[in-house]
Amino acid sequence: MTKIPIFLFSLFLFNVAAAQDNYEIQVYGSPTQTKGSTMFELHSNYTFDGQKNVIDGVRPSNHALHETVEITHGITDNFEIGFYFFTNYTSKYGYQYVGSHIRPRISVPEKWHWPFGASLSTEIGFQSSEYSEDTWSIEVRPILDKQYNKFYISFNPTFGIGLSGGTDHTPSFEPNLKTSYTINKFALGLEYYGNIGQLDFIPRVSQENHALFAVADLDLDPRWELNFGPGWGLTKATDAFVFKIILGRRITWKKAKK
């Protein structure tokens, strides 16, 4: 999520900046893409009720369609690289390119026999100053998850650091959490997304960014991924209502026969 120190000056500015976080709304699982496979994902998120004003050059999120193309390729059995292409559409500004990120990730091998899944993602990239206070940022995301029969839980204690723009480079804590229960090939669950603030200045809860999504995951075919559901902002600093859809297609590239 976007790293914004504007709350140091006023709640109103913080609200506007935080509203632009709705490009990739996803809690990561620990497994990486298998070697030689590629996942193509489209993240489509529509903000039905969000920030309505332009403040300090950052455009509002209200009635914005955020679409992100994510392409992730498995380099080894435990290492992948992902690439993001962010876009934004509103009736006033039309379709706009927002930025791009690259994300290497490494996972703990199964042969280590840890009692839970674990991986580490590092994402770095650029976003337009019209949609983010930080034009360059880096995100460090540890990923811990566990499957208990039909119950699944994943925790991403994420840290974001603004590298350029309106930031002082202090890491912000942005925890994500997912729980779900599977019935046949259909999983119902909850996803939580937060931005507690920068570690050297934790604002009041009303100034923090907290959202809760009710989600469904459909797993009829290992080649396809579908995750969708509505989300509600839990504080005034968060967009009030967002609907998200993630549609993915996995391709395993076969070597040509000699």
From TrEMBL:
Domain of life: Bacteria
Keyword annotations of the record: Signal
SUPFAM superfamilies: Porins
Signal peptide: 1-19
Protein name: MetA-pathway of phenol degradation
